[in-house]
Write a structure and sequence with these properties.
Layout (H helix, E strand, L loop, with lengths): L1 E3 L5 E8 L2 E5 L5 E2 L3 H8 L5 E8 L2 E10 L2 E2 L5 H14 L8 E3 L6 H13 L4 E5 L16 E5 L2 E10 L4 E8 L2 E9 L12 E6 L1 E2 L6 E2 L2 E5 L25
Parallel strand pairs: 6-8
Antiparallel strand pairs: 1-9, 2-3, 2-5, 3-4, 5-6, 6-7, 9-10, 11-12, 11-14, 12-13, 14-17, 15-16
Length: 246
């Protein structure tokens, strides 16, 4: 069991081949990495592919997929985990501020304690994994070897309109086409996203009739999400109205 981080995480693979370090987003495109992450990974031994989430200048390492040309994806999670913990142990103290191996709980007591702490700290959520499971790409889903439980709701939406006073109108794709789901304020320390931009929003819940988000908070733009993925079915409704909307 491992915790998920707060903020606007961006899922990435990091591939190191010789002296070359590349980021790979969930679309499979090569993307840039912050200089601290690229420099730190370049100093790690051997050729590797790491799976994790980037939050600012920090990479939270979830999994190790390849080491010196050996594909680990089909091996059990606990075996892959031993590889990325080995890399974690080899990192200098300063490097651990940039590449962080995500905490994992094993016993019932550890899991309960981690769950309660993350709830108190208002973290995004937690992921449960089977130790004997091979690597499965994509988001953890229901009924598989890894399950994600969110403490708060987030979604990706398309900017439909830029309003006055630093807010934008959001829209999601439903059964009857694009539908407005309210507005979100853009903080002063962020650029106002243009119409058509895909952004990430955290919110408490949504109104079942209007689809409007309650207490939305802007987290940032998404460059790894397609417009067709911004669907109404992402919505978490108020208690008692959680059926899928489309």
């Amino acid at each position: 069991m491992r915790p998920r981080k707060t903020g606007r995480p961006s899922h990435k693979l990091i591939r190191k081949t010789g002296k070359t370090v590349e980021g790979i987003n969930k679309k499979g495109f090569i993307v840039g990495l912050p200089e601290p992450i690229a420099r730190t990974v370049a100093g790690m031994g051997g050729d590797i592919i790491l799976d994790g989430e980037q939050i600012g200048d920090v990479f939270h390492m979830f999994d190790c997929l390849e080491v010196n040309g050996e594909d680990l994806r089909g091996k059990p999670y606990d075996e892959r985990m031993s590889w990325f913990h080995e890399y974690d142990c080899d990192l200098a103290d300063s490097a651990r501020d940039v590449i962080k191996s995500v905490m994992t709980a094993f016993t019932t007591r550890q899991k309960t304690g981690l769950w309660e702490r993350l709830r108190r700290e208002n973290r995004e959520g937690i992921v449960f994994k089977r130790l004997d499971a091979p690597y499965v790409p994509g988001k953890p889903g229901r009924g598989g070897p890894q399950l994600k439980f969110k403490f708060c709701a987030t979604l990706s939406a398309v900017v439909a309109k830029v309003n006055r006073q630093r807010s934008v109108e959001l829209q999601l794709l439903g059964k009857d086409g694009w539908q407005t789901c309210g507005n979100v304020t853009i903080p002063a320390n962020h650029d106002i996203p243009k119409v058509g931009t895909i952004i990430e929003v955290r919110y408490l819940d949504a109104n079942r009739e209007s689809m409007v988000l309650y207490q939305p908070v802007y987290l940032g733009p998404r460059d790894d999400v397609e417009p067709g993925e911004c669907r109404v079915s992402q919505l978490k409704f108020k208690a008692g109205t959680e059926e899928e909307a489309g």
